[in-house]
Amino acid sequence: MYGTWGVFLGGILLLQVLQLSMGLDNGLALKPPMGWMSWERFRCITDCKLYPDECISEKLFQRHADLLVSEGYADAGYEYVIIDDCWLEKNRDNDTQKLVPDRKRFPNGLNALSDHIHNQGLKFGLYQDYGTNTCAGYPGVIKHMKLDAQTFADWDVDYVKLDGCYANISDMATGYPEFGRLLNETGRPMVYSCSWPAYQEDAGEMPDYESLKQHCNLWRNWDDIDDSLESLMQIMDYFAKNQDRIQPHGGPGHWNDPDMLLLGNYGLSYDQSKLQMAIWSIMAAPLIMSNDLAAVRPEIKDILQNRAVIAVDQDELGIQGRRVLSRNQIEVWKRPITPVTKNGHHSYAVAFVSRRDDGAPYRIPFTGKELGLMNPKGYSVQDLFDASNKLGVFQSNSQFITRVNPNGVTFYKFTAL
Ligand code: GLA
Questions:
Q1: I need a labelling partner for 396 at 20 to 30 A (CA). Which of 21, 172, 205, 308 fits?
Q2: 163: annotated active-site residue
Q3: 104 C-alpha vs ligand 1 centroid, how far in Å?
Q4: CA geometry: angle 328, 333, 338, nearest 5 deg
Q5: Taking a C-beta distance cutoff of 8 angstroms, is the pair 82, 159 a contact?
Q6: Ligand 1 centroid to 224 CA: how many Å?
Q7: All domains of the chain in start order, with CATH
Q8: Side-chain half-sphere CA neighbours of 62 within 13 A
């Protein structure tokens, strides 16, 4: 009898030790999360009288949950509706110390909103901050971590973005894992998005990616994206310049996050919109839009819902791509994807990015060797933005010629034969 109990208790202990050593093993985000988030487009607009359709309010999130479904984004894979900053009252509840959503802008409370989102078959995300305050000055979690983790679970939250304003950077290496543990302890699976490395990088500290992988499902590596090509290019350059230390850590369950998609807003042209979508897919980035879904023009919506490009982003191997070559201001970005041949040759998604702004599309040839496309049987080539462009089979001893618009991209899948 005692022996059986011993084995039983020993088993439980072993399980607990395993669980501790595996850290955040919540089985979530096996593919880069896809969804919609308020910050880039709607920032901290809180005046609902002046801007009834834009203010951070339950209406904005209900409207976007509905649009995700009615406009076909949900079918394409966009799933999370995420409230960013500015949803809170400036003070916690006096008696319970719980966080309180703004009473005027969220009059029905977050359970009602969460139900609305879930009833649409979508998932609900929420922003908070590890420090004393959020970046926009609302109360942060630091002194109430256990209570807040439980409150999130009680609101049926599925995704938490934990920012890092008004916090000691030196506390983050222990504080972020601690909050992740508290989220896990609620028993509700919640994707955990950490901003911790972005703050460390900013302060000149080297993030510990092994620890991040253990404790977070995704993490913001660097600066916020703004609505411009310049901002987009700065982020691309940051990821490319630092790819040796960043790229290896992205993978199923733990992703690098270059920040939101700008498509559908004011700053990017049609070509530049394709460019962001292609490079985000090469980087295995979370595809989190931030736009007014009612105002997205049809041709931009087509880019956002391009199934072939989304399939690259969501490729099951989860290997993040890299910038592999740059010539005459044309950059080559490349990502290994499925299918893989019996002999171990990967297929590849390859994006050719033009950093040129001289008028005409720029024609440029590359050899198979330069592109690292050396499968002896060759590759069948698919133009991911133009299915009507039939490209046939590419042999590694031949040249691949592409023609890229200024500040634009061409994007192909090379399927190994
Ligand atoms: C920081 C984050 C942004 C956004 C704002 C909100 O700047 O990096 O993504 O969440 O805070 O205040």
A1: 308
A2: yes
A3: 22
A4: 150
A5: yes
A6: 7
A7: 34-314 (3.20.20.70), 322-416 (2.60.40.1180)
A8: 15
